[in-house]
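Q: Hi! First time doing this. I have a protein sequence and I read that you can turn it into a structure. Is that right? Here it is:
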Amino acid sequence: MAAADLRDFAPKSELLTSTVPKPRFVALDGWRGICALLVAVHNLQYVKAPSFVVHSFLFVDFFFVLSGFVITHTYGQALQSGFSPGAFLLRRFGRLWPLHIVLLMVFVSLELLKTMAGNALQMSFQSPSFQPPNSAIAIFRNVLLIQAVGDHTNLSWNVPSWSISTEFWVYALFALIYLISPKRSPSVLLIGAMVLFAATVIALSVPDFLASNTDYAFFRCCFGFFAGHLTYRAWTVGGQKLFAGTLAELSAIAAIVIFVCIAGDDASSMMAPVVFGFAVWAFANENGAISKMLMARPFVQLGVWSYSIYMVHWLLRTAIKVIVAALSGKSMGTQSPLEGIDGNWTMIAITVAYLVAVVAVSAITYRLIEAPGRDYFNAISSALTRKKP
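A: Yes, that's right. Below is the predicted 3D structure, encoded as structure tokens:
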């Protein structure tokens, strides 16, 4: 979910200190921001939402593919050349955990306030405090980023964090593969076998295929991430000259729109890594008109804030749910925050206000939490790996 950012990019010769920036995919950064907003809109769970919005949960798989592509670009050669897997994991941990743990504390604090209000004001709530899935043991699992690792798990506390739980442990698997491979160079056949194995587990064990984020979620992440890894390796072998230009970018967008509209909770969703891999390939070339647009400052900034957007939107969604319930005089429903709201224009106005708030809060959390946390762990990683004179 949180692909490598500017401070993660350094050429192979400099990665032990990570002081020199490495070329980045600016257009793909723009895609990160767009995908994060689409997931945020999807999680409002409109009753009458168009199929594209209903199926936009698939953009989490876009993140997985993009992460595999960019992480391989950033760290593949470095790990092959002796960069410490431990330092790599420390950097990835620092990219994911600080914002996650702060938001977890916010959600736990809100649950404590609910308990205090219930005791002091004799208020009753639809769901008791600290009960599954938001139990005390779930706090412990979230702290360790293992809340979504297992065959059948529950979505708890900050719900979108299920994906970063799987992604961190896929990073660990990625580093391990480089460590144990001959000459630290994983074969395409090995990675291909892993993609096939992950796809097989999902196809045979998950009734909703890629629509599920609680059944074998780790394998869903593996499927997308290592498909992105293979996409990068194919792209580097003359790939910059294929699927390039405006026509390729328009074709990729058309493929994404058509696929997301028609794919749902059936086997068709399994094509996500292929469709998104094609899009990542096309936009990695950055030589079409759409890429130039995505490289404009507003889209680049959305990309910078994309991880924060993805992580904070559930908090804002919860706020909308409370406000709508208070204004309508009804108890909070179990599904959409907009339950009971009628009128398309009202829905659109709420959605726009929600997205503006999400972006605004994300800009703050990026500046105050995400970036300082990342820099802190990067500094530790650099100190641990710096060569002695």
